[in-house]
What we know:
The protein has helices at about 1-25, 50-65, 85-95, 110-125, 140-150, 190-195, 220-225, 230-240, 270-275, 280-285, 290-295, 330-345, 360-390; strands at about 40-45, 80-85, 160-165, 170-175, 205-210, 215-220, 245-250, 310, 345-350, 355-360. It is an alpha/beta fold and about 400 residues long.
Amino acid sequence: xxxxxxxxxxxxxxxxxxxxxxxxxxxxxxxxxxxxxxxxxxxxxxxxxxxxxxxxxxxxxxxxxxxxxxxxxxxxxxxxxxxxxxxxxxxxxxxxxxxxxxxxxxxxxxxxxxxxxxxxxxxxxxxxxxxxxxxxxxxxxxxxxxxxxxxxxxxxxxxxxxxxxxxxxxxxxxxxxxxxxxxxxxxxxxxxxxxxxxxxxxxxxxxxxxxxxxxxxxxxxxxxxxxxxxxxxxxxxxxxxxxxxxxxxxxxxxxxxxxxxxxxxxxxxxxxxxxxxxxxxxxxxxxxxxxxxxxxxxxxxxxxxxxxxxxxxxxxxxxxxxxxxxxxxxxxxxxxxxxxxxxxxxxxxxxxxxxxxxxxxxxxxxxxxxxxxxxxxxxxxxxxxxxxxxxxxxxx
Length: 396
């Protein structure tokens, strides 16, 4: 018996130490990529109320991760979360702390879905025919400040990248944690950033504010990059060490190509904005500041095919296309679109060719959850061993 006790004592000590280290890893920030094998990026497109679609997809991923670790939020699995317009708002909701000195996020993906369904109708309710912009934006402004308060970009739980466009300077403004050391004026309040990136021309008023003496007059980041994936990758390449990139890119749904141009200038407000802002549109498309972001990604091997998962509904019912359709039935249908996407096969878009992979988006997300979880645990162990002065031996 004494011999058994002598054997059990060190085993028990090891178990206690291991458990304490494991628990210490719960709900702690993700150690930097220096400790890991790759850089993980979550990218969320713009699309107004259609943001319900990627939120539903993220809820699935979040639940898959919670099954492995119930206490760690989604933001602590990604090195970067990037979003434009409604995706920018979602980015802030997932990455902003729920209070000062907290490692808990403001919202979970499931709560984001409910937020859209509850407050979407209030954001897009004060519509008047012929008025430009179509909505006052008062409710969105009040709710954004109520939620985010004085929280600044530097206080997010992980790095965020949110594109906007300055309509006076005629150039994109990218709010990124990576830039803050050299461009401190970009350390703006998240509320200001969200109101800027979501200010869709003709729908919501532009947003003006001043930070550290620099004036901003911002409109929807979609003018520069509705899909912020390239911008996020560029930020990583420009401001961090070279690592293999793992990306999840989420769309908000798109109709078939032959439907895209229908109704693009219907209504006097849209027509007026288009003809009076031709210079702005031209700069948004051709400005070298934005092109440099595109060019930064044109390097082989930066984003291996197996490291990129794009989940998008490419055949959205045209009745659900409007970014401001907050009818209860439409929002429920958007939620169903997100749920149905999980059961669809993974689609890989290559120029004009579409490849369908023989596994579902849900299965791909399950695999991604496993990779993200293992990467996080790997970094935590490596950082812990380094802190204790012990050699780190990678195990498979």
